[in-house]
């Protein structure tokens, strides 16, 4: 991956990534013409090389760079798997990763693209695979799962060494089983998705919060489903 490192050194320096409070996406400052941004998260942004589209560079915010080596180690432990991407190397503030085709489940909801049950089953198998490698798969949400030829591909494994179960996947599965049939195949407005996401983020650490969130989600989706 020497050539890819040279490309990164040539095009990434003008980019500066800063984090934002309240679980908001990072901000990007500077943008070279030879890269295109294909993803923005709360810790990092992902750029694809226009000249070498098979690879992407995940660039972390200036105050999140300690996660670079951690995520590279997770990819090393995962090895080659149909459920995860591959890491080819890293530097102080970025990872070199294989580009993965597909659309996130978040964008599937926005565009009304059906999410098959197979995707849910694949994520469960991927989590079990990660556990067998001594990892703790967590922080699995709509933007971290790609729909790829009818199957699931998990991206962003940076939290797989942290302890505890954040229950995000269990909650998503429950929401899929109970409420997804109400809106399957229909585009869901961005405002509705973000309203539910923000409610979940703000209340998820409170007791009985999930039940309240599910009731709140049910009211919104039933109203939308009947519209």
From TrEMBL:
Keywords: Kinase, Serine/threonine-protein kinase, Transferase. GO terms for molecular function: protein serine/threonine kinase activity. InterPro entries: Kinase-like_dom_sf. This is Serine/threonine protein kinase. It comes from Aciduricibacillus chroicocephali. The lineage of its organism: Bacteria, Bacillati, Bacillota, Bacilli, Bacillales.
